[in-house]
Amino acid sequence: MPSNIHIKITDRNGTTHDVEAPTDMALNLMEVVRMYELAPEGTIGVCGGMAMCASCQCYIHSTHDLADKSDNEEAMLSEAFHVKPNSRLGCQVQVLPELEGLEIELAPEE
Amino acid sequence: MIKTDILIIGAGPTGLFAVFEAGLLKLKCHLIDALPQPGGQCSEIYPKKPIYDIPAYPEILAGELTEKLLEQSKQFKPGFTLGERAETIEKQSDGTFVVTTNKGTQHCAPVVAIAGGLGSFEPRKPALENIENFEDKGVSYMIKDPEVYLDKRVVIAGGGDSALDWSIFLSAVAKEVTLIHRRTEFRGALDSVDKVQELKNNGVINLITPAEVTGLFGPDRLESIEVKKTDEAPQLIKTDAFIPLFGLSPKLGPIANWGLEIEKNAIKVNNALDYQTNIPGVFAIGDVNTYPGKLKLILCGFHEATLMCQAAYKIINPGKRLVLKYTTVSGIDGFDGTRKEAPKSVVKSIN
User: Fold this and answer.
1) Domains and CATH numbers, chain B
2) Chain B residues close to A43, C-beta within 8 Å
3) Count of alpha carbons within 13 Å of B302, Cβ hemisphere only?
4) Which terminus of chain A has fewer Cβ atoms in its 10 Å neighbourhood, N or C?
């Protein structure tokens, strides 16, 4: 049985949610946020997960070693607003077993 | 005044397919779209990306899907109002609706089908608190008339194709062009990147990277901007115009004020029946609607468009009975006089 991982997600109102995410469904962080409805529809994952909008931008607060950003993600983040050094596009971060305990915060809506 | 049977707001895949389904019922359609070309997101955002869940197409590029939908609906001669955003809707005493665009074009129809997807695409505005005070007073988010910048000092911000292309273009028109981008890398056609490099080397374009615009100043019109280069103190640059080019993002826009029930940034519809909204005669189909179990998929939009057309027929032809016809059996009669039908088989004895 593939195991679930636990992720702490702070929503745009500042509330932190402890959620479980399966690692066998090829999910990304944006999809986990939508799965638990932690941001209203239409304010997250607007482009569907193609790194073509920044509606799923989040800040990574834990020290997990994430896969490097693709050129597309870099380019999108270079034009997004509210960007910090720990910004990532949620849709580009895959939910993997090694992300157990990940802590993220959703960036403000643009 | 443009008159039609079904006025479709949004020329994406769902709206385009609605033209075909309406045509089978002899209903004429007219489409309004804020973008200058039909196809919606498929042509604007990801024309070169493959889609794998269109029935019978194991793989099709979004741009190709748009072309095929246009081809499929062509015989029903849809009208288009492109590059204009549907702004207001008014119900007339005869029960029809008048929809007016931001450019004042008026459309009249007994049925309105909103197939607006995620909404109309609007420029993304940078988060500068007083930016709205300077809109049309030095700040603009798109360039409509480049002549306006003749002999002016212009600051462009952004790192994509439009920032690069307009910097190149305006460098020949304006007195001074400054391009500001948060990174040193630009994302655009290689030609444009090389050209900007050349113009910068020749001192034609003033390039400031990695930097961000952090303030806008002027008593009424914009007079200067504050730029902060990473790890440096902010500097003030005198300018006549600031043009942030950060791409487009979809907004539900004026439709949100049409008195429609909105839930989850989408229009609530009756999915048990015909995708009608709380306003009789106004339907919402495709990604723009919501109902229990809604899936934002192109194929679901096709289904919703088909049922909407049946309901539209009943509104437009009250009391008339409608029977489902199969195109394979009945063929298709276009509004352009064309007819498509299955080849007839012959019945002949063989001796």
Assistant:
1) 2-121+249-340 (3.50.50.60), 131-246 (3.50.50.60)
2) 265
3) 12
4) N
